[in-house]
Each structure stands twice: as C-alpha cells, then as structure tokens.
Amino acid sequence: MTAQTVQTAVIDPKAESAIQLIDVHKWYGEFHVLRDINLNVRRSERIVICGPSGSGKSTMIRCINRLEEHQKGRIIVDGTELTNDLKRIDEVRKDVGMVFQHFNLFPHLTILENCTLAPIWVKKMPKKEAEEVAMHYLTRVKIPEQANKYPGQLSGGQQQRVAIARSLCMSPKIMLFDEPTSALDPEMVKEVLDTMVGLAEEGMTMLCVTHEMGFARQVADRVIFMDYGQIVEMNTPDEFFKNPQHERTKLFLSQILH
Amino acid sequence: MSTAVDMPRFVRAQQVEALPPPSLTRGPIAWVRENLFSGPFNTVLTLVVFYLLYVSVPPLVKFLFIDAVWSGTDRAVCRADMGGSESGACWAFIRDKINYFTYGSYTVSERWRVNIFFALLAIGVVWLLWLKAPRRDLGAVYFFWLFPIASYILLTGGNATFSGRFWLGFLIFGALVIAFFAFVAAILKVSLRPALIIGGGIVGVVGVTLALVDMDFGLAHVPTSLWGGILVTLLVATVGIVFSLPFGIVLALGRRSKLPIVRMASVIFIEFVRGVPLITVLIMANTMLPLFLPGDITVDRLLRPLIGTALFASAYMAEVVRGGLQAMPKGQYEGAMSLGLNYPQMMILIILPQALRIVIPGIVNTFIGLFKDTSLVAIVGIFDLVKTIEASRIDPNWAAPSIGLTGYAFAALFYFIFCFGMSRYSLGVERRLASGQKR
C-alpha cells in the first residue's frame, strides 16, 4: 500500500521543504568529503541514501543536525538555517531525531531514563508527563516491559528500538537514521526495520542511510546514491533499482543485490 | 556420488540436563591444592611466604600487644632501668597524650567545640557516602554549606566583626556578580531570568554565609596557631578532598576546551603544579602568598597550606578526570547532542557521571595520596598528627626507648584506618554501580 503511494507522490511545489541543502561543501582538513550537495526534502518524504563506505553519506546526514559542520553552502532545516549560532543549533536538534549505528544509548541510565532525559531537560516537561510519553513510545516499539532495565541488559535490536523511541519522545519533525541496522545480528534487523516502516507509514520525514534495499523498495520516496562525496544518482526506488543510469550505480547495485 | 545419502541423520529430541561439577573442584582440600600447592614452583612460593609470615608476624604481635605497656603516668613504666618493660609498645604514652594528639594545643576548656566538629563531620560523611541515606540532596547542602559555616564558627569562635566598609564592598561585589551573569546571558543569547536567579543565588548564599560568620555567638576566640593533631589532619584532608574534586573537574574540562585561552590556562596550571613537589607548593603558599596580597590583608597561617594542598591535589585530580573523559566514546557526546542537550547538560547528565565512574579508582587513589600528604604541612609549622607525635616524643617526661616506635605505630594505625576505609568504600561503590548496568 505504501509502495503505491510512494510512486504516485509527485513533487508539490507548494509543500514547504523540511530540509534544504544548497551547494553544501565540507572538508576534513584537505580532504573534500562533501562536494556540491543539493537536496530538497519535502515534508513526510522518505529518502534512503546508499553508497560505498567513505562516500560521505553519513557525513551528509550528520550535517543536518550539525554533528558535523559544513564549510560552504547553506543547510536549512525546518525553516531554520544552520549557522554557528548555538541557540539555533539547539532549536534544530530539538526537532530532528537521530538514530545511530551503535545506538548511543546512555549506559548509566535505565531505558525509561534514557527516554525521559531530553524531554525533561530540553523541553522542560514535567517528569510524570515525560514518563507517560516515554512509555507510550516504548509500547510502540514493543518493549514497554524493559523500561527499568539498563541498555547493557538488552539485545542489539531492542537497544536500537529504544534509541528510536528515545528520539520519538522529543516528538521530532524529522528523523535521521545513520545505518541503524548495520551493527545488528541478522535475526534482529527485521524488528528494527519493522519499527521504521511503521514510522514511515505515519508520515514522518525520514532520511535513512542504509543498505537494506528491501526497506528502500518498500518505503522510500526517493533513493539517493552517493559516491566520492557527491550525489551521483537520485530516483524513485522503482526506477533506481530497475533502471540505474550511472555506471557507478550499476556496479554498486550489482555488488549488493546478489 | 552423493554424500548426503550416506550421512547419518541425527536430531536431538531432548535437552541435556545441567550436571553438577566434579567433586574434586570444590571443598577446602581442593581449594588448598589448587591455590597453594598447584605445582612445585607454587609449593616453594607458598612455603617461603609461610616462613616470612612466621618470621615477621609473631614479633610484631608480641611488640604491639603481648609485651605492650597499657597504662602508666610517666616514663617509668616503659623503662627497664626504672622497673618498667621496654620490650613492647608503650601505649601508656599514647593514652597520656591522646588529647594532645587529637586537639593539639586547642584551649582545653573549649575542646567540646572540636568534638562537636568531629560529630558534624561524621554525620556529613555518613549522610553523603551512605548510598541509601534519606534526602542525600539535603545532605549535600549540609556538607558543602551548613557544615563548613558551623565548623568555622565552632572552631575559630566566629564573630569576624566585619567593618561597614567590608559590607559596602560586598554589596558592590554582589551587584557586579549579578551584572556579570546578566552580561554572559546576553552574550549567549539565553533568557535573562535564570541568569539573574543564579547570580542572585550565589550572592545570597555568600551574603548569608558572611552574615553568619560575622554574628557573635559568644564563643571564645581560638587562634589557628593553637589547633593541632587529628583535628588539623582531618581538616586539611577534608578541605583538600572537597575542593580538589570539583576544581579538578573544572580543570579537566578546561584542558579539553576548544577555547585556546581556557585550555592554555588549565594546561599551565596543571603542569606547573604537577611539576613541583608539594613541599615547594606549601612553602610558596606560606611565604609567597602574603607577598602577592595587599598589605592590610593577612591570610591565616593555617589557611595557606590548606589552599596549597587543595590546589596541589586538584591538579592531580584534573588529570585523573581527564583520563575518564578521554575514555568516553564519541557516540555518547553525539547521542546527547542529537537530543538537543546543551554543553552543561550534556556534561553533567551524560558524560561526567560515566567518566567519573570509570576513574573512581584513580580518584580514590588521589584522595588517599592527599590524605597522607597532609602530614607535610608540618614543614610550614602546622601541628598535624605526625608533628604532635614528633613533639611529644621528645617530652622528657616520656623519655623511653620504645616511645618513638609506639608513636609512629599509632600514626600508622590512624592513617591506615582512614585510607583503608576509603579504599574499601570505593570498591563497594564500584561493585554497586557495576551491578546495575552490566554490559
């Protein structure tokens, strides 16, 4: 069902952009990691980014919540342009959730505390309300019974679902996923992907760096292929997989879709 | 040729029950064999150790307990030529001098105040360190604010009699502090209200503190030059421990700061203090600090080494804490930042609790080192426990061959009890923290 809505999604010029990257460049010292990135993400759009390692895909989405700084160009997230202004960065981070490859849960806090920390301290939500919100999202990712355990006591898949719930507790407008399933055992990939699919179906704006091509086919509105710090190809998933245009894309797809 | 056809098929129908381990691996005999006599080399080692214990422990027990003299009023009981016994420790000496060892020359009629101070200190320490104690937040307020004020008033007599000029100066200073906070808030573009509350709070707390210190409670003044013994040792150690940790954390954060001036200042302080011996710091604090200050301000002669040891310990603490910060994975910072936590929140809620937990052994190590280093304040004429023993040792009334040994045995026992206590406590904390979040 989603797959069809995905295909019929056409560019609506009136829709306000969730994220705009305009001529973005980034260097690590002398190394040019991001080269002339232009990307316009509409609200509720699901974008999957793939590409070989070192192609700059993680760096790109980490620029969106300023975990990395860009040196040239403009990044506008939800109408706020990212500059050196710390207050603006915090504003953007409030609205942008991020899920990492290695979960990055806080091991000294329980699952519930992990989830309530940011709402309490950043959104100044009363503790009781924050706990209700947290339990709501933990139920959604199907692990409410683990609320009082510590992250170290959970499996990788469970930890990643907690990480997703933790981000959702801030009710973000945009979710960034940085290879969320790459550090998981094969058995646990599905439970995390199912959670993400559920999120996508609810209309969350998502940018997802992943090599789960099944997921890309199922939920993505657009698939982006990056190499050498550039966006090489961008297309709907159907076209992208059936009819890749660029040589580099063909080679990449032939290697990952055995 | 298909091998699959020849392969015997096997499907386990039931789970194998867990069996108890063989009996040879349990019980005292198995333990002795495994741990003491597991091979020829270990057998030899065990025998050598047993021999060394045989050589050293019985004479020690004999000296400290069996042959010891427990009571008496002067040197006669501990001298063979005066009819006493001198082959054992002369505990009678310690018993006779215990008040001097505890209070130094503190005015005799006022010593009850020191006892109250010890009691308050014990309450504060237990309240803070006993992890299940009720309202530990109040405990912190007590230990870090009320207790120091009470101690100051009790020990010195309070009644600082500040002049009107002083209070005027304080008012100006307070206004400046509040203005500073407002200024910082304006620079960082955060709202003014919390900044004013923080600034006003600091000024208020300092003001109340000064007012209490200024108040006359009718206690006789006891100059610090009379303080001594365990009182001074515990005082210097407590102040050093309490100040070195927060100051060390600030220095460690400063050393990792992105701002070059902050980083340089921290590095210079840490490297300079670590690069000189404590004795140098103490002598400098004692003789040079007054030179830097304007003529009419005199720093109390006990306060000088107090500041010296606290600064010295904090430089070491900074490096210990930095070790913990270094060990934190980058992902923890990113996880915190991605949730929108600002720098202080990230540090206080996420990074420091974990980093400090990693370095508990190092922190306690520094505390223990500091506790024993307090004996060096004797070099600038402060009568700490070791110095009082040193002074009593040459008391002609107690001139006996075993006095020196006994005195130092007493000091060793005192230091050991406290240091071992700290060590065990930290082990307990580590274990408790580890059990919650095993990876």
UniProtKB/TrEMBL annotation, chain A:
GO terms for molecular function: ABC-type amino acid transporter activity; ATP binding; ATP hydrolysis activity. PROSITE patterns: ABC_TRANSPORTER_1, ABC_TRANSPORTER_2. Keywords: ATP-binding, Nucleotide-binding, Transport. Residues 19-253 form the ABC transporter domain. The keyword Transmembrane helix does not apply. InterPro entries: AAA+_ATPase, ABC_ATPase_HisP-typ, ABC_transporter-like_ATP-bd, ABC_transporter-like_CS, MetN_ABC_transporter-like, P-loop_NTPase. It holds the Pfam family ABC_tran. Signal peptide: none annotated. Belongs to the ABC transporter superfamily. PANTHER family: AMINO ACID IMPORT ATP-BINDING PROTEIN, PHOSPHONATES IMPORT ATP-BINDING PROTEIN PHNC. This is General L-amino acid transport system ATP-binding protein.
Automatic annotation (TrEMBL), chain B:
PANTHER family: INNER MEMBRANE AMINO-ACID ABC TRANSPORTER PERMEASE PROTEIN YHDY, MEMBRANE COMPONENT OF AMINO ACID ABC TRANSPORTER. Residues 230-418 form the ABC transmembrane type-1 domain. It comes from the Bacteria. Its main location: membrane. One of its GO terms (molecular function) is transmembrane transporter activity. One of its GO terms (cellular component) is ATP-binding cassette (ABC) transporter complex. The chain crosses the membrane at residues 36-54, 112-131, 138-155, 167-188, 195-213, 225-253, 265-285, 305-325, 346-368, 398-422. Belongs to the binding-protein-dependent transport system permease family. HisMQ subfamily. It is a multi-pass membrane protein. It is found in: Cell inner membrane; Cell membrane. The lineage of its organism: Bacteria, Pseudomonadati, Pseudomonadota, Alphaproteobacteria, Hyphomicrobiales. This is Amino acid ABC transporter membrane protein 2, PAAT family (TC 3.A.1.3.-). Keywords: Cell membrane, Membrane, Transmembrane, Transmembrane helix, Transport. SUPFAM superfamilies: MetI-like (SSF161098). One of its GO terms (biological process) is amino acid transport.
